[in-house]
Every structure is written in C-alpha cells, then in structure tokens.
C-alpha cells in the first residue's frame, strides 16, 4: 500500500499519507494540499459538505479493491472476463467516505475506506 501511495504522490494530487491500515477491513488516507480541496477553496467559499474530493475517494476505494477485493499481489490474469466477473459481483465491495476536507476548512482531506 505504501508503494502505491508513493506512486500517487508522484502524480501531483497532493501529499498522500497512509494513516491507518487494517488489512481487509479499513484503509485511511490523509491528503495534504490536495488539488481538489485547494482548488475548491480558491474558487468557492468554504464548503459545508465534506464529500467533495471525488477523485481521491475513488482512488482510495480503488486501492482497497486492488488489495482486498482482487488481491493484485497474487497477479491474477487481468483479462476482460476477469474484470466482468469481479466487478459485476457485489461480494467484497468496499465503502468510502471523506471525513475531513480542505474545502470545509480542515487542515487536510481524510478518506476512509471500510468493509
């Protein structure tokens, strides 16, 4: 997980930090200077809704799915049939929520994925 977060940091989406990992149960990521949160604050007044970092929430959810829904470490064959089978199945899906938001005035964005 830390390696994948290091790669994400190279994309310029802010400074991502793994706050908490409970394998197969919970993943918490903090994002300092997130481009979504900082960009929002530059364009709009302080938000009241924390669920605004859609790309970050999707990326954290994607990481959780890669590690604990399909376990990419086992190197499954990444075929079209594999994707249809895995992602058309509700089994193993995770939830995601943004609990802190730069757009709302918090110091960082905090994204929690859980099952």
Distance between the termini: 17 Å
Give the SSE string.
HEEHHHEE
Large-scale geometry: elongated
The helix count comes to 4
Low-pLDDT regions = none
State the strand order across the main sheet: 1-2-4-3
> Pairing-aware structural class of the strands and helices?
alpha+beta
Instruction: Tell me, rounded to a whole number, the average pLDDT.
Output: 92
Question: Radius of gyration, Cα only, in angstroms?
Answer: 15 Å
In what range is the share of β-strand residues?
15-25%
Largest sheet descriptor: 4 strands, antiparallel
Number of domains: 1
User: Considering DSSP H and I runs of 4 or more, what fraction of the residues is helical?
Assistant: 25-40%
Number of strands: 4
Spell out the blueprint of helices and strands:
Elements (H helix, E strand, L loop, with lengths): L1 H8 L5 E8 L3 E7 L2 H9 L10 H15 L11 H8 L7 E6 L8 E6 L1
Antiparallel strand pairs: 1-2, 2-4, 3-4
Describe the structure.
By secondary structure, the chain is an alpha+beta fold. The protein is about 35% helix and about 25% strand. It has helices spanning about 1-10, 35-45, 55-70, 80-85; strands at about 15-20, 25-30, 95-100, 110-115. A four-stranded antiparallel beta sheet has the order 1-2-4-3, with helices on one face. The longest helix is centred in the middle third of the chain and has 15 residues, at about 55-70. It is elongated.
């Amino acid at each position: 997980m830390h390696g994948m977060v290091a790669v994400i940091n190279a994309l310029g989406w802010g400074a991502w930090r793994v706050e908490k990992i409970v394998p197969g149960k919970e993943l918490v990521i903090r994002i300092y200077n997130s481009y979504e949160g900082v960009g929002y604050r530059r364009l709009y007044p302080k938000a009241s809704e924390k669920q605004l970092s859609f790309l970050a929430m999707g990326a954290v959810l994607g990481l959780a799915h890669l590690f604990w829904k399909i376990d990419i470490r086992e190197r499954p064959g990444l075929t079209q049939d594999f994707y249809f089978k895995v992602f058309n199945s509700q089994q193993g899906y995770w939830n995601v929520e943004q609990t802190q938001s730069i757009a709302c005035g918090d110091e960082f964005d905090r994204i929690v994925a859980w099952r």
